[in-house]
Amino acid sequence: MIDKKEIFIFDFDNTIIESLPLCFSCFRIVFEKYKNIKMSDSDIESLFGGSEEDIIRSHVEEKYADEAVELFYILYENLHDHFIVQNKVFENITLLLKKLNYKGKRLAVFTGKGRKSIQISMKKLELEKYFNYIVSDDDVANSKPDSEGILKILDHYNATPSDAIFFGDSDADIISAKKANVLAVGVNWYKTRKFTISPDIISKNPLDIIYSCC
Predict the structure, then answer these.
(1) Which PANTHER family match (predicted)?
(2) What would the CATH number be for the domain defined by 7-18+86-212?
């Protein structure tokens, strides 16, 4: 099933890299400074839906919004190396990406991150070489769980849903894939998460995918 797919689309946060702790820390500092509140990880995660800039502009007074957005991205870049650990899981994911490239598969990312943060992470981790096309939240009118980003990728490759497979770690990812009629793989590569929307496949290790198609 998987080996027949030609287009492999990946979510980014907690799918390709374990980046949520970094995101939580940056948001926490920004909201404490500009809203004078301390937020837990779950408080912050409840705001997700849209890019980092969209989230900040929706919750910070307009007169502080530009400054708050700028601070977020400064923090994201400066704290990146501290939070993002290139551990065994990441090594296995990069091995998967290499194998897929070798097989001639076309790799893309559809992420809820903004364009600036995905560019920072891609550059720091030297991941640009693996992906042919990236769709960030800034590139769509409708955020996940809408399927616009996946459909945009299919259109870019002049492909049909049956050509593609999507990997993600959240319900929003699975819903996006199902709305696009694309095979949905729920990943528990970094952290085990319970899906309320059943993926077509659940993968606990990126090596599973290598054994299936490479």
Answers:
(1) PHOSPHOGLYCOLATE PHOSPHATASE
(2) 3.40.50.1000
